[in-house]
Records
---
Amino acid sequence: MNIFGVMDVSGSALKAERVRAEVVASNMANAETTRTPDGGPYQRHHVVFEAQNGGTFQESMANQLGGGSSVGAGNGFKNIYTGGISGGLSGDLTAANPTPGGVEVTGVIADASKPLQRYDPSHPDAGPDGFVAYPDINPLTEMVDLMGATRSYGMNASAITAEKSIFNSSLDLLK
């Protein structure tokens, strides 16, 4: 992970959560939409997240050091600190435990659930039997999703603020 690693990871999460909030807002806005350009009622949408591969700690360290041989394959990062850190490193920080990366939106998919049927013979989209097809959207579920997106967005914004504080503290030490 580079010096801006926290900002990269949290920035990707901010972007993903913003998309999630937009999709939830679209679902809530179209909760009563009975007619779409594709025909039929609006279909609820879901955001699909996928973890970005952040690479291994060894790869990130090698990239930061310009591919120096001291962290090359076989030597391992642990060898740099041999005798330098009391107690040593716990666990394997190489290929078995990759550094976590951010998140990305890989798609927005339509819900495959059937539309709700409500009896309303006076509605212009009512069928010959008097039933109207409405989207299967529960406002409570959408609000819970929106609150989750909001909380996650706030947590990642706090992580960026903490990272900025770390940078400022480090710069103060160098003065």
Note: Confidence is low (pLDDT under 50) at residues 69-93.
---
Amino acid sequence: MSSTRIEQLIDNVQAAFDRRPTEIETGLDVEGAAILQLRKACRLLAGAEALQNASYYTLVIEASFVAIERTVEFRLLERGTMQPDDLPGTHPGVYREAAAAGVFGESMAADLADLWRDHRSKTYYQDGLASAARAEAMYELATEIHRYITGRSRNGHECLCEETTQ
């Protein structure tokens, strides 16, 4: 592998993103930013479940946190609290916005932000080690938050989770 090869691959990736997409992932070709975020969360949860079965615990923890964030963003967009260009640019910002919009209570939002700061970052960047129990607990939390939010949504029927787990 050479730097020339890497530069060529960067150009290939840029070109792929510049072209109009074809063969779009099933379920993600939707109208509206809210449903797109919801369905990305569904896919992240399905991926996390598959990764749990493969014992890739770091990825399960990462995907579970991201699934929570996509689910919250779905709700913020659905309620008109935020527009696609205004979504929080930070992980803790998602939880703050969720509390401000009443998606969660402030205490729960603070607990989620603490989990992200104390455990996700350590698992991903520092010395925290992923384990089966940690990954399973995180996946269960993400799944429950997803169900809680979609259960209170007028567009909860757009959720793909039942479809992807059958």
Note: The longest helix spans residues 57-78.
---
Amino acid sequence: MASFWCLDSVMNALSRHFSKLPVELIFWIGALIGILFIDPYGPNHFTLCPLDNLGFDWCPGCGLGRSMSLLTKGDFKASWSMHPLAMFAFVVIVLRIIQLIRNNKTTRNHG
């Protein structure tokens, strides 16, 4: 019985620790870091797109990640021609990261 009580207290401590992690913030920062490492000029690329992985040729988001990668490299014309919504998506992600950081500071200091 004592070992279950110890395991339960460890699980509760881990649960409290992980519930404080800003998962969405980590996700978006990781996404931007992943975009930095994409090679938009390469012939083959890794994709998480379910439509592409199912074999469909067309997807409304096709090229968005590579286009955002071109933005980070300063190739604006190629980025626009690959996917015109890349700049909008980039701004939205950066603004969301800023908002999550502000919310995290507010809830930790005054919440």
Note: The radius of gyration is 20 Å.
